Amino acid sequence: MEKITKNKQIIFTLVAEVGRSKGDGLPKNASGAALMCYASGIDEAEAVRETIAVLKISGMSPLNVSGYGSIKERIDEGHDIEDHEYELMEKAMKENSVVISQITPLFEN
After folding, report:
1. Is-contact 31 20, C-beta < 8 A?
2. Spatial distance between the Cα atoms of 101 and 107, rounded to a whole number of angstroms
């Protein structure tokens, strides 16, 4: 009988760029926004897919998602990770979810 292995979820740091959509909650004159997200997945591709799905369900228009790696990868690259980031990552892990930690509206010049 084959042993079934379950892949372990890990947390990835992502930045999602969104355009405008009706009822998105962004400032009236914003052209879109950048969202810092922590998302769980067995790999970064799954975390990106989940993030896009959550943003669409939330009424946002995702345009692009950039990955900044797992916690381990970020530490290995020398990133400073603050305590509040660890707390949000832990929340994403416990809830097997996407946590948006920051929304930065973007404006056209």
Report:
1. yes
2. 20
Which residue stretches of the chain have pLDDT < 70? 1-7
CB-neighbour burial class of residue 57 (10 A; exposed 0-12, middle 13-18, buried 19+): exposed
Q: What is the C-alpha to C-alpha distance for residues 65 and 67, in angstroms, rounded to an integer?
A: 7
Sheet holding 10-19, edge to edge: 61-70, 10-19, 32-41, 98-106
pTM: 0.87
Assigned token pair, 20: 């405008």
Question: Quick check: 11 and 5 in contact, CB under 8 A?
Answer: no
pLDDT value of position 6: 58
pLDDT tens per residue across span 47-68: 999 999 999 999 999 999 999 9
